[in-house]
Write a structure and sequence with these properties.
Length: 734
Amino acid sequence: MNKLNALSLALCSLYAACGNAQQSPETIRPWQQFTQNDTTIPRLSVAPDIDGELTPTEWQNARVITDFVEFRPTVGGTPRYPITAYVAYDEHFFYVAAKITQPFDTITDRVLTQGERVWNEDYFGLILDTNHDKSDGYLFHVTPSGVREDGLVNGTEYIAEWKTLWYAKTQQQDDGWTVEIAIPMQSLSFDPDAANWGLQLRHKLSSPYVQSYWNLNNPNSSGWHASQTAPISGLRELNQGKGIEVKPGLAYKDSLEESSFEPSLDATYRFTPSLTGQLTLNTDFSGTDVDEIEMNMTRFGQYYSEKRDFFLQDSQIFRFGGMDDNDFNGMPFYSRRIGQGPQSGVLDVNWGTKLTGRIGNTDLGVLSVNQERDGNIAETTQLSVARAKQHIGERHQLGAIFTHGTADDSASQTLSGIDYRFDDIVFGEEQLIANAFYQSIDLPDNLSDSDSDSDSDSKAYGLAFKMPNDRFYLDTKYRYIGKDFNPAMGFVNRTDLKYYHLTSHYRVRPQTGWLGDNLNLYQFRTYYKRWENTDGEKKGQQLFLQPLIIQTKSHDYFHISYDMYNKVLKDPFKFRDNIQFAEGEYDYNQWTVFYETASDRPIFASGRIVKGDFFDADLTRYSMTLNARPNKHLYVQLGRHMYYYERAGEKSNMYNTRLKVNIAFNSEWSWNSLLQHNTQSDSFSLFSRLRYEPAPDELYQLSINKGYDLEDGWHDKKAVFSETAVKLNYTYRW
C-alpha cells in the first residue's frame, strides 16, 4: 500500500503541474469574439401559430439570429449547416423558432415517444436563466419529430426528471427542418422587474457529431451550463395570468390487496411571478417510471433518483452542500424517504404542501407532507423540510436547511444545517466551484448508538473544490459522517466515516493531423479515494487509473482502466450464500476494458470486461448491452451482466438481465415495457405502460407493475407486488 500512496501523491503533483501550465491567460482569447452582448428581444403584437411552419409574417418582427458558432468538436468553427433562429415574446409566452438547412437524408431522427431519451438525436433548443445569475436555468430541446426534452440546469448538474408545460411543433422538408417553441410565462419563475434574463440557443447534429451555439462565454465549460448564457433584455409587462394551475386525476388500481378508484388533485398558485405554492391531495404515483435495478457489489445501501412529479418541481432548491445524485452520502434531505417505510414499504401520501421560488436574492423552499405511519398505516405522520439560499453578489451563496419528522413517528427527529457555495472563473477561463457545509441532528437519547449523550456524534460536515472544465477537470473533497448521523429524511449509507476524494482528467480535443481527422478527444483520468472511521482508523482506499480514453469522429468510445483496492472489514461480509469474506485487510486489483459503438446506427452496442480479484476471490465480469432502433417506431434494448467468482475451488455467479421494448405508434401513442431479472436478489419484475398524450396538458395511461420472488424457482415464484392502474390527468390553467 505504500506504493499506492506514493503513486497517488505523484499523480496529485503531476496534475498540479498540468493545472499551473494553464494559468497564464492571454489578454484577449479568440473565443471571446463569440460572446454576445446584451440583446434586446422584440415584443410581438400577434402571437405566432405554433405548428412548425415558419410563416414569414408571423416572425417578421422577431429577433433574427444567424451568428452560431461550433462548440464541439472545434471551438469557433463554422456550423456544418446554416441555422436561422427567431426569438420574441409577448405577455404570455417566450417564443423561439428555427430553420436548420440541411439535406433531408442527413437528419438523425429516430425517437417518436415523448419522454424518451433524445440526446443521441439531432435537436434544437435553448436555455433560459430567468434570474441571470448564471447558476440556474431551464432547458428546452426539440427533435425533428417534435419530441420534447425539458429539465433544470443547476450549476454543473442537469436535472432531467423535472418537467413543465410548454409547446413545440416541427416540420421536416427536403432542405432541412423547422421548429417553433412557445414557453408559457406561467411555467417560469422570474422577477418581473429584472433588467436581464440569460439565453443560450443550441443545435446538435448527431452524425457527424457537431454542437453549435449562439453564445460562447467559456470553451472549457459544458455548453449546457447556465454560465454560458448571454444577457437579453426588453422583456416587460409579462403576464402569468392568475397563477392558478389545477391538475385533477383519477386512477383505477387493482392490487394484491384491493381494487379501488383513487381520485387525486395537484394544484399550483403563483403568489408572485417568482414564488409558487403547491398542494397535493391523495397523491397518486401510479404509472411513474420504475427504477432500473443494478447489481449491488458493496455492503451499503443503493441510491435511486427521484421520479415523482410533485417532488421534482423546483427540486434544485433543496439541494445542499454540493451533493447530488452522484454524491449522496450525507444528504440531509432525500425526497424518496417520503412515501416509503422500511416496515410497510410504500405508504400513501394523504396531502402535501410546497412553497418554492425566490424573494429578492433569496431562494426559498418549504415542503410538508402528511402520510401513513410506517408500521401502523391506520395513523399518520408529518414530514417537513425548509431550505433557504441567500445570493451574495454573483459569486457567493449562503444557505440553511431544516428537517423534522420520521416515517414511523417514533421520535421528533430534527436536523439543521448550513452551507456555503462559491462560483467564479479563475486563471482567465477556468471555472472554480467551492462548497462547504455543516449539519447536525437533534438526536433523542433513546436513538443514540453511543453510551451517553456526551459521546453521541450526530454531525456531518464537508469541504469540496471543483474545477468542472473540459480540458483540465479537478474535483477534491473531504467529508465527515458521525457515528450517529442518520437523518430520517436524508440519505446515509455509511456512518462513522472520514472520506477523502480526488478525481481529475486531462482531455485533449485534437484539431489537426491524423488525430484531428480521426478523434473527437482523448484523455487520461484518475481518482483516489480513502475511507477512515471518525477515530482515524483506515477503512480502505482505492486508486483508479484510466490511462487511455478515446472518442472517435464516428462517436465510438473506448477506455481501459486499472483499479487498486485496499479494504478493511471490521465484520464478516456475506456476499453470497456460499461466499463470505472474513474480517481483516484485503488488497486486490481489477482491469477493465470498455467499448461502445455510436448510437446513431440502427444497431449499436456496448461491452465491458472486468478481470481481477474481489477481496480474496477471483472475479470475472462480462457485460453486454445490445440496442436496436431500426426506425422511430421501435426501440429494443437487451442488457446482460454476468459476474463469476471463484475461491479455493468454490464457484459462484450472479446475473442481471434487462429487456426494454419501446413502441411508438405515433407522436401521441406509445407503449413502453421493462423486464428485469436479478439473481442477486432472486427477483423478476415487469413494468408496462400504454400512454396517450394528445397535448402537453392532457395524459392518459394504462400501467402494469408486477414483482416476483424467485427464491424457490420460476415454477414456485411468489408475487411480491402487483398493481394495474388506469390513470387520467388533465391540466387547467388560469
